[in-house]
Amino acid sequence: MPYETELRTALLALQRASLLTRRVALTTLSSVTKSDRSPVTVGDFGAQALVISALRHAFPDDAIVAEEDAAALRDNEALRGKVWDYVQGAGLSDEGAESSIGGPLKSERDMLDAIDGGASEGFASAGSQGRRVWALDPIDGTKGFLRGGQYAIALALLVDAKPVLGVLACPNLPQDASAPIPTEHAHEKGEGEGYGVLVSAVAGQGTTVRVLGSGGVAEGKPTKMREVGEAQIGSAVFCESVESGHSSHDHHALITQKLGVTSSPVRMDSQAKYASLAMGLADVYLRLPVSASYQEKIWDHAAGEIVVKEAGGMVGDVQGRPLDWAQGRTLKENKGVVVAGKGVWDMVISAVKDVLAA
Ligand SMILES: Nc1ncnc2c1ncn2[C@@H]1O[C@H](COP(=O)(O)O)[C@@H](OP(=O)(O)O)[C@H]1O
Ligand SMILES: [Mg+2]
User: Fold this and answer.
1) Which ligand 1 atom is at minimum distance from the Cα of 67?
2) Exposed, middle or buried, 224 (CB in 10 Å: 0-12/13-18/19+)?
3) Are 230 and 341 in contact (CB under 8 A)?
4) CA 261 to chain centre
5) Same-domain check for residues 288 and 323
6) Furthest CA-CA distance within the chain
7) What's the 284 CA to ligand 1 centre distance in angstroms?
């Protein structure tokens, strides 16, 4: 199967990184504020080191674009030591699986180099055919991670500026699609209690859900989005960011009102929203940016996009056009993202257009 090794590596890398984020989540969390005023934690740095070292081991020639860099750690011995403790403590229980992603990191220096290995210019500079770029968000939804809500470790492989593989590790999503999605105190629920999924997709191969474990790759189950038609839109489950600064709750409310949706949207951080749709936990995801200063990276949607599309859903901008991966590193203002099943897509896009035009 195409991308078999890439998928296996990505699943194991994210599983290992989630061992670290789960452990960090059980401590008293604190964050450092970055230059863009967004928070970063020990979990973000540690997860990035673990995933990049796995990718570099398996695919040394591939470019990697990741959210964090190691500057803050190089300057801060205490913080660096803390991250290193967690990185050393995160190893898969299956030795064969662990060694297939390069085994434990050997030194603090290797850890810093791995973190800085995510500084590629990515496909913005990729001209030649067959160019491969991995896009990693080591903790997507850092605010959700800090408040005990949903977060995801998100990894996608883009070939010639198109997502061909995506994996979302969502430690706080329920494994059972009929269970409610926890939005607080979620870190207290672990694998043993039925929480933690790995949702993955490869172009043309469908979307698969696995239990997020601590050893080798678990058996996967194919998943599809729920089939919701126009007649059922009133009872569809909508989801949106917790943060109204990330997308406009007011616009979303006007859209759902127009569509006659009866229940309030489920608020959830991170690309766990895409995973929820792919798993049939929710039906529509609206993300309408609110300000011109909003410079969200397009990478933050790559894994989610393929996971939803391969589960039978649609992902586009507010005009219903496909997301433009070649446009560079940011999701341009006013474009936004709409995610829905095929049965309600036209109707949702038409409501979005009406509300934005008003
Ligand atoms: N002001 C801003 N500018 C750019 N991106 C922003 C932003 N505020 C939030 N984001 C993006 O939105 C993501 C969180 O989305 P959500 O609200 O769906 O949880 C953040 O991911 P990180 O948590 O990885 O930084 C970040 O990429
Ligand atoms: Mg992040």
Assistant:
1) 24
2) middle
3) no
4) 27
5) yes
6) 59
7) 19
Asked whether 66 and 40 are in contact (CB, 8 A), the reply is no
- Quick one: 13 and 111 in the same domain? yes
Q: Whole-angstrom Cα distance, residue 72 to residue 33?
A: 10
Q: Do 208 and 236 share a domain, yes or no?
A: no
**10 CA from centroid of ligand 1 (Å):** 22
Q: Report whether pLDDT(56) > 50.
A: yes
The token duo for 290 is 């609110």
Residues 6+ apart with CB under 8 A from 9: 54, 55, 58, 59, 100, 101
The whole domain housing 271 covers 230-357
346 is known as an active-site residue: no
Cα-only R_g, the chain? 19
> Counting runs of H as helices and runs of E as strands, what totals does the chain give?
11, 14
The pLDDT of residue 264: 94
**ipTM of this complex prediction, to 2 decimal places:** 0.95
3-state DSSP call for residue 191?
helix
- Give 214-256 pLDDT, tens digit per residue: 999 999 999 999 999 999 999 999 999 999 888 999 999 999 9
Is the pLDDT at 335 greater than 70? The verdict is no
Q: How confident is the model over 118-124, as a mean pLDDT?
A: 74
CATH code of the domain in which 20 resides? 3.30.540.10
44 is a catalytic site residue = yes
Provide the CATH number for the domain around residue 257: 3.40.190.80
Atom of ligand 1 nearest to the CA of 150: 19
The count of domains in the chain is 2
Of 41, 22, 34, residue with least CA distance to 79: 41
CB 286 within 8 A of CB 238: yes
- Nearest-CA residue for ligand 1 atom 26 is 296
**Nearest alpha carbon, ligand 1 atom 5:** 296
